[in-house]
Amino acid sequence: MGDEVGATPPSGCHAPGRAMTAPGLDELTAEAQRELIGPLWLAEVRQGCREVSRRFDAAVYAVVERAWTSSEIEELVQDVTAEQLLRQGQLRYILDVAASAEDARRLLRHQVRRALVRRRRRTVVDQLLARVGRLLEGLRWERLPGVVPDRWRPRGSDWPAEPPLDSSLRAAVAAVRMLPKFLGAGDRAPAVYRSEVLSQLVELAFTAAGTSLSIDDFGTILREVLTSWVPVVLDQSDGPEVPGAEPADLPLDREETVTAVLDALDGTDRTVLRVKLAGASDSELAAALRVSRPTAAKRKGAAFDRLRTAWVRAGAPGASESIRLAEELYARLRTTENSDA
């Protein structure tokens, strides 16, 4: 194959066009315990990168070239391995959650998608942060004197210079998540904000965080917000089409569609989705459900699978309308919090 990357996979690894037995979960687990990322895992990462990258425009998501060449795939392999699997600890998460080798491969492909989305999001966030910096120089905000790096707060407030807690940043993310986004052309175009909405975002972020914020803090908020959870809903199971989940012949209006989706979810599903879509970690979800982290992760997967099925059955469309439907669904989940408790 023209875009094969690196050396021939070791015995036991599946390679395109070769009739070989893929390694099982026990083999992958044993290798990770010995050396974290060895030849078996590298072969799996490469295969996942090849498969997932086909769905992403190389002109946008590749680093140097405008095609998914062997060098670009290798760059992606290194990105997924170093950042997602090792630095973010996702290798351990995959092994904690996966019940089979196919589960592990599904979760690995999800990490490849995350790595690719982060590449596009990084450029968009840089542009937005430049605009946020200009807004912070306005009359409504003041720079804290003698603080490095620079931090801002509402003018006249006595908010401290200490960095915000993670919980404060999550509160800011939840407060601004549903602000209207202006979507460019194409299903994978980034979401951006018009000037008046970006001003509102800055104000809401300060109010929700309740403390001074830096440009890096706004970067954290924007990166989380712009990781739209709609593709996560549709890609979560990464398996075959749901049997019997044919889209509706005629799409319902937005309110009816959201109601149809919510009616298909039980109280636990709604709690899982509400907590995760607010930006909480799996550990925080486990605390909310009063279960272990692996159990919480499995319940999360099941809830997203049921959401995906309901989404398809309700005839929810793609692209920008799906973003709006998703935001309405998240708003309804938040308003039903007490009734689900």
How would you describe what is shown here?
The protein folds into three domains: 25-116, no CATH class; 137-227, no CATH class; 230-340, no CATH class. It contains 16 helices and four strands. It has 341 residues and is mostly helical. The model is unreliable at 1-19, 184-189 and 230-252 (pLDDT under 50). The chain is globular, with a radius of gyration of 22 Å. It starts with 24 loop residues before the first helix and ends with a helix.
Task: Please name the defining characteristics of this protein.
341 residues, mainly alpha, two-stranded antiparallel sheet, two-stranded antiparallel ribbon, 16 helices
Number of strands: 4
The outline comes out as globular
* Domain unit count: 3
Integer average pLDDT: 78
Brief summary:
With 341 residues, the protein is mainly alpha-helical. 61% of the residues lie in helices and 3% in strands.
Question: SSE layout and pairings?
Answer:
Elements: H1 25-35, H2 39-53, H3 58-61, H4 70-87, H5 90-97, H6 101-136, E1 141-143, E2 152-154, H7 166-176, E3 182-183, E4 191-192, H8 195-209, H9 215-225, H10 229-235, H11 254-263, H12 267-277, H13 282-289, H14 293-313, H15 319-335, H16 337-340
Antiparallel strand pairs: 1-2, 3-4
Helix pairs in contact: 2-4, 2-6, 4-6, 5-6, 6-9, 7-8, 7-9, 10-14, 11-14, 11-15, 12-13, 12-14, 13-14
